[in-house]
Amino acid sequence: QAVPAGSHVRLNLQTGEREAKLPDSENGRSDTREERRRKRLGKVDVDSNSFTSQELKKALAKMKESEKAERKVRRAHEEEVRKKFRPIKQLKEEFEKLNVKMETDYEIMVKLIGKYNSSASTLDEKVAALYDLEYYVHQV
Questions:
Q1: Disordered: where is this region (predicted)?
Q2: Is position 27 within any domain?
Q3: What is the mean pLDDT of residues 28-36?
């Protein structure tokens, strides 16, 4: 006799009969992987032969609309961020106009390594360069 997919079947060795366990779920079906997939997808027949071309086109149109809406939200967020912050190049130009030189951590680290390797630096300057370099390397 045929039993529903996912049922627990066993062979009773004492009687020689095959036994099937009835499903535990409320609706009378076992909660197999296929059943969980159907629950996740909702009331959709997942048999690929059952979809018409019109249904597929409608589903694709809905997906495209939701994707466009997500892009609009992302663009709005990016514009909001751009309004709050300025690019580093623009900041450097503005600081140069004020005669303030802005250096990145990398530029400072290169300068400190140069100071450490310089034969003109004193021992105290080299120790200070190493302490400063330790600070910047720790951040990285």
A1: 1-46
A2: no
A3: 57
